[in-house]
Structure formats: C-alpha cells, structure tokens
Amino acid sequence: MAAMTPLLEVKGVTLTFKGIAALTDVAFSVEKGRIVSLIGPNGAGKTSILNCISGRYTPDCGEIYLDGRNLLALPAHKRTGLGLSRTFQNIALFKGLSVLDNLMVGRHHLIHYGLLSSILYFGRAAADESVHRGRVEEVIDFLNLSPYRHLAAGSLPYGVQKRVELGRALAAEPKLILLDEPMAGMNLEETEDMARYILDICEEWGATVLLIEHDMGVVMDISDKVVVLDFGSVLAQGRPEEISSNTDVVAAYLGTEDATFFGR
Prior knowledge:
Layout: E1 6-17, E2 20-31, E3 35-39, H1 46-54, E4 61-66, E5 69-70, H2 76-81, E6 84-86, H3 99-105, H4 115-120, H5 124-142, H6 158-171, E7 176-180, H7 188-205, E8 208-212, H8 216-222, E9 225-230, E10 233-238, H9 240-244, H10 247-254
Parallel strand pairs: 3-8, 3-9, 6-7, 7-8
Antiparallel strand pairs: 1-2, 1-4, 4-5, 9-10
C-alpha cells in the first residue's frame, strides 16, 4: 500500500489472562481516512485488541498511539477526548432513553458548562445545548433515524438499535471509530445499508474506521486494508485482494485453501 500517515499505531501488544495469552506481539496501523478491518476465527483476539485500544483492557506490554498520543498513559474517558469512540458487539444503549438522548450521551465529553449552569439552564448552558442538539440532529438525518428520535431505544427493532449505537459513536465527533461487528444479526438489506453508512462516515464525515466483521463479502468490498488475527497473533495484513488469495488465511478459517470463502 502507498505510504500514508497512520492515525492509530499498535506496536507489540501482548495481553494475558492468568497466564493464557489472548494477544501476542500484535502490531498494525490504521491510516487516516481509511477503513481497516480486523478479521479472524472466533477467539482470535479481535475484540481483545479493541478493548486494549479503548481502555477496557490494559495490555501486559506494547504501545498504542492515536494521532501520536500514547493511549496507554490515559484512562478510557480521556481517550474519548482525543477522538476515539466505539460500538460494542452486544448492543450497549440506554434502553429507557430516547434515541435523541442516547445520541446526546455521545457528546458528553464535548460539554464544558458547569453544574449550576446546567441546573438553571441559562447563558452558556443553553447556547451549548443548542449546538449539541443541532449536531445530533445531523447524525439522526444521516442515519435515517428521524422517525425514531423520540422513541425509547429499547423498543426499536434490532437493526435500528445498531444504527442508534453507530449514531452515538458518530455524535462524539471521533477521529477514529471502533466498530465491533456492526452488522451481526442483520438481514441482507440492513447489512447493505450499514456498509453504505460506514463508507459515508469516512467520505463525508472525515472519520477513520477500525472494523471487526465476520461477513467476508462486506469486508472485501469496503476495506482499504485487512488485518488477520489467528490465536492472538497477526497472521497477515494487506489489501483485500492480497488477503483473499492468501492460502494461510483461508486455511486458518476453513482448514482448506479454497479461496471462494472470500467471494473471489
């Protein structure tokens, strides 16, 4: 791939749980404005590396940098302030809150007015609230969530809830979005819509995406780069066409070298 500026750099990350290695010397980069997919068999360590990046796990050793800043020196909530947001493999919405309120939660780190101002709701608090509400409305329009804006998130169909979770991550105005299986459990139409949204997030919103996904057709269609994990280590990385023709990668999935698994 042509040399580009890395937004995220993962260097030699190792993570163990009571002596059992979940990740071993994992290293890769995510270039600005690109979609990079993490793939691998179940248990390969994909979610573990996302948890290390976001701050849920602390690796035993290694380095992780976001736009040149050392993430491992910061608690999870400080990483959000640097431009990092994520979705989860299992939906993690506030199910009793409306779609609008769930998206407003995504802007929490951007709210700077104090407690008194928020209680009395005057001056800076009122002005800031208007700005944040406007930005959230842009996300709602982008993800076609307008019919649901005032409905409780927990009452919505599964595919819509996945969109709401993506919207909450996008409302944070991130440089990098970590997406953990955003299309899991979706039907074909919902999957195609989500793939389009991810492409538009990069092209129209200027964000960078690190994606975990098991739908190999989607991965090969939308990714600029693919990183393959197997047993907690990087097996291969490169352009989609390079990965789809890599016999070691295909064998790791199927125990066979039949590359039709990747739709090629």
